[in-house]
Amino acid sequence: MYPDDLEDLEVEDGVGAGSRSGRGRRWRAWLSEFAATAVLLLVMVAVFNCLFGSGGCAAHLLTGPGRRLAADAVAGGVTVGLLIVSPFGRCSGGHMNPAVSLAFWLMGALPGRDAAGYAVSQLAGSLTGVAVGRLLWGEPVADPAVGFATVRAAAGMPWWAVFASEAAATVLMLAAVTFVAARPRAAALLPAVAGAAITVLILLTGRWTGGSFNPARQFGPELFSHDLGWLWVYLVAPLVGGALFALVRRRLPHAPPLPGAPRPDPDGAPGTTDRTAPRPERAWRAADGRIRGQHGPAHGHESACGPR
Questions:
Q1: Nearest-10 crossing angle of helices 112-137, 98-106
Q2: Contact 250, 263 (CB under 8 A)
Q3: Distance between CA 1 and CA 9 in Å, rounded?
Q4: pLDDT tens track for 6-22
C-alpha cells in the first residue's frame, strides 16, 4: 500500500532533480486517494439506501439485521478490494483510511507529507462521495433509517467499548495487511486479503459498533446527518489503533520490512534506521523495471501515476 513513485521522488526532491514531475506524481497520488474514498462512500450510500431506505431495492429481500449486516460487510470489503486494484489504488496504494496512512507513516513506509496529504484527501473524498449520493438519490438518503450511510453503535453501548472495538479492529486489519505486504511473493494477494479482512471485521463488530474502523468512512456521513455525538469516537479510535500497531510493529525484532521503509540500523539504537541503506524493495525490481515485491496494487505493473 505504498506507491513506489512517492518513494522515488523523495530522492528526487532532495537533490532538486525532477521536482516538477515528482510533485505532479505526488498530486496525482493524493487525488487518487480523494477519488477512491469518494467512490467508496458513494457505494456505501447506495448500499444503505438499498438496505434501509423505504423504497430500497433490497429492503424487502433482506429483512433481518443479520442479513443486512452481511450485505453491508460484503459490499464494503469487495468495494475496497476492487478500489485497491483500480487505477486509483495502483497510483496511490489504495489506503482510503487515515488510520492506515498514519500507521504506514509511523512504520517509515510513507513520507510525512504524503501521510498528511492522504488524510486530507480521504476526508475530502468522504464528504464528496456522500454529497454525490445525496444529489443522485435525493431525500431518501437523508431519512434517519439511511442516515447518509452513517453507522451507529447499538443502544446502550458505552463509548469506551465502541472506542476499544474500533481500535482493536484497526489493529487486526493492519496486521492482516502488513503480514501480506511485507512478503513479496504474497503481495499480489493484498487486495483480496484487505477486502476479506474488512468483511470479516464488519461481521464481527457491526452488530455492536457499526463496524467502521475508518475515520473517512464516518466523517462525511455524520457531518451530513448532523449526528455528531459519536463522531469523535469513530475518528480517534482507529487512529489510536493504527498508531499503537505501528509503534509495536517497529519494535518487533523479526518483523519483515515493508516496501518503502528503510532498513533497521544494526549498530544503532533500537528503533533507529539507516536512511542511506538501499531500500529493501530495490532487490525485488525485475530487469524490465516492473515492481515484483511492491505491496501496493501495482504489483507486477508499471505505476498508474505516470511515467517513471
A1: 170
A2: no
A3: 16
A4: 544 444 444 344 466 67
Q: How many CB atoms lie within 10 A of CB 164?
A: 15
Q: Tell me the C-alpha to C-alpha distance, in Å, between residue 219 and each of 34, 76, 78, 139, 193.
A: 13, 16, 21, 20, 25
Contact 81, 158 (CB under 8 A): no
- Counting Cβ atoms within 10 Å, is residue 109 exposed (0-12), middle (13-18) or buried (19+)? buried
Q: Give the dihedral sign, CA 281/287/289/292.
A: negative
| C-alpha separations of 204 from 9, 85, 132 in Å | 40, 25, 30
Give the burial class of 132: count Cβ atoms within 10 A of its Cβ; 0-12 exposed, 13-18 middle, 19 or more buried. middle
Residues in the chain: 308
Render pLDDT for 56-71 as a digit per residue (tens, 0 to 9): 666 566 677 788 899 9
* Secondary structure of residue 291 in the 3-state scheme: strand
CA distance 182 to 12: 25
3-state SS string over 214-283? CHHHHHHHHHHHCCCCCHHHHHHHHHHHHHHHHHHHHHCCCCCCCCCCCCECCCCCCCCECCCCCCHHHH
Q: Nine-digit cell at 111?
A: 513520507
Give this prediction's pTM: 0.81
Q: Count of H helices and E strands in the chain?
A: 10, 0
